[in-house]
Amino acid sequence: MQTDHTENVVERDFGGMVTAAVFILVAVVALWDTTNMVDADSFVFPRAVAIAMIIFCMLLIAWGLIRPIPGDGEASAPGASTTRRVSLVAAMLGSTALMPWLGFLISGFAAFVSIMLIAMYDEWTPFRKLVYPLVCAAFVVGFYFLFAELLLVPLPIGGLFE
Amino acid sequence: MPGIEYLLEALTPFNIMLALGGVIAGTIIGSLPGLTATMAVAVLVPITFSMPPASALILMGAIYTGAIYGGAYAAILLNTPGTPSAIATTFDGFPMAKRGDGDLAVTLACLASVAGGLVGAAFLLGLAPPLAKVALAFGPVEYFWLAVFGLTLISALSEGNLLKGLIGACFGLLLSSIGIAEISADVRFTFGSQVLLGGIETVSALIGLYCVPVLIDLVATPDRHLKVTHQPKGFRLIEALAISWKYKFNLVRSSVIGTLVGILPGAGGSIAGLVAYSEARRVSKRSEHFGTGEPEGVQATESANNATVGGGFIPTLVLGIPGTPPDAVILGALLIQGVRTGPNLFTEEGSIVYTFIYGLFLATILMLPVGLVIGRYAYKIIITVPKAMLVPTVAFMTMIGTFSIRNSVSDVIIMITLGVIGWILNRAGYSPSPIVLGLILGRIAEQGFVQAWTIGAATDELAAMFFGRPISLAIIAFIGLSLFYPLIRSRWTGRRRKVNAD
Known about the structure:
The structure holds 2 protein chains of 2 kinds. Chain A is mostly helical. Chain A has 4 helices and no strands. The N and C termini of chain B lie far apart (about 55 Å).
């Protein structure tokens, strides 16, 4: 005989509570850092905020333990790819980290191409193989020109090329 | 009322061309995340040096007004405020776009921006000298209470969990404390890192917290970015006009709020948008729908932020105190032109000032066709571009936009890191909006509080300093209303229902 266990399962907002615990840690570190400040003008505001944050977090955790309520976080779409998510962040961070050495143009191009590959779900038809890289190059060069030449933003040239 | 000769002077083909070109350039620059209205005006200022002062002012005013409106595109279609003024536009604009009403939201934003711009310009034309006194009446304590008023929006943005909203706001307030303290110049929360000395740049943080989580989710599935419920046909102008007419009081109220906040030096479009949004939500019969794609929310923010253009010019021209950051750039350009701002400007240099104000009306009216056309194409591009092109384009724009704010690679790293934190917090039910609110209002609140406290302690009138000034008391009353009005209204409605049932 099958038993329905779902009625006995108590849903709790574990995500919210764990995050609140992390925030308590952040607030404690902030409080500790304010002890190095000598001027009251500097520490009164952040100290008050950090204490308030600890109180709110403790209330949230206590509330979550006393009155179990399910989490209200944004649910992940079915079949969502974690690999692609991590790859996107890695591509953005990696290309930015390389910017001082490779320059904005090359690292920007690398970021664009890698993110394009990560976000590609369609089949690579001959048309796409030809057009996408061209659009990619035109976009990166166009924006580089707009920012560096017209808006006079000193985009990094790259330590390797100086 | 100033003479018609100034209106005719503003309507020369050269000035019309400048107004049109300025609005187009401003709208495009404002729509790019990271490029603010201040930057748009600053970059294009050198062009104005060889022009007559009135024409130069018309061009700068047109760029400014266009850039403030342009910020709405990215806010609605990408959940990324193109300019900080458009923060509150994301609250309802993006949910509207997600449910398939992006084109309607863009048109509504355009109509609201035009209405707000016209109201701001009308105040500038008719009431500039008396209203300039308001700017002088605002001291540190009033700024502190204004920031607290902005923070009451947390209850609206917490999406059901007030504690999480408050925790998020505290986190934002702590983030705003990073770097060198403005009053005492103490180094705070940098932990020895030179990168953090300059603090967390607000626009970079906005881009990270709002846009990067969208990109992270966008790349994870093959689904389309925005739901398309119908083939885009036209601008949905009739529908948008009907909504604008239905909520005309919201439009007028938000425009007046925007003008008044614009008059306050340093407050700017972001505060105006947040205050107007808060008020619109408080007064609305559909307040529970705010944050889920309510047209009134988009309308309130966009009319308020564009009204700051005219409002900001009031202290700039009458007192020589810039009302908003772009006004500071414009003031500098005027000084180079040899125009001396001050109370006598309206009488001694009436031809420059009134020609410019009529030019501002012209630019605002031109924003309607320009905004509708650019908005339509922006929407079509976003819904038709394949994901493999859309994601890298937006990611690249966030990177280059963030870099350009302070020419800092570290800011780009911080932006991406905050984006990842924002995504994780979203999963745990923490909305990014309270964090952003804390980050923006933290500096204003702290500076106002510390200055007011210092003055109050020095004069031995601490309580009177915080609770004894008429404007402060008025703002405190609004804070009370904002916090408790939903409770009072629900009780009142419940009592009426009970009476009716009896």
